[in-house]
Amino acid sequence: MSDQKLPTPAPEPAFFDNPAIDNLIAVTMELGAELWVQRERMRVIERLLAERGVVTALAIEQYVMSADEAARVQTERDAFVKRLYAAFTRETVPATPDGP
Asked: Which residue range is the domain that position 77 belongs to?
């Protein structure tokens, strides 16, 4: 075993005064990405089951969408992103009458 230490990653840039907000946005983005991956995988599994009646991990990994299917998925993904992240663009008001 080596005594050599791994390099320390550079600090992440902060976009907000409170770094917790940056972290919450990062978590939200990661969860959205993971959710989309799971939806994509489930869509492939359902298609393979409908077409073949059986699914293997190899069949899932080797699945290639048709051009029409890719266009539909792109439309679905755009709608998903818009729904999921719409809250980031909405206008808000202070939670208390005195302001922030």
From this structure: 19-88
pLDDT band for 73, please (50, 70, 90 cuts): very high
How much is the pTM? Answer: 0.74
The rounded distance, in Å, linking the Cα atoms of 55 and 47 is 9
Do the beta carbons of residue 54 and residue 46 sit within 8 Å? no
Give the residue among 80, 45, 77 at the shortest CA–CA distance from 61.
45
Domain annotation covers residue 96: no
Say how many domains are in the chain: 1
CB environment 68-100: b (16+ within 10 A), e (fewer): eeeeebeeeeeeeeeeeeeeeeeeeeeeeeeee
Q: Is residue 28 part of a domain?
A: yes
pLDDT of residue 13: 83
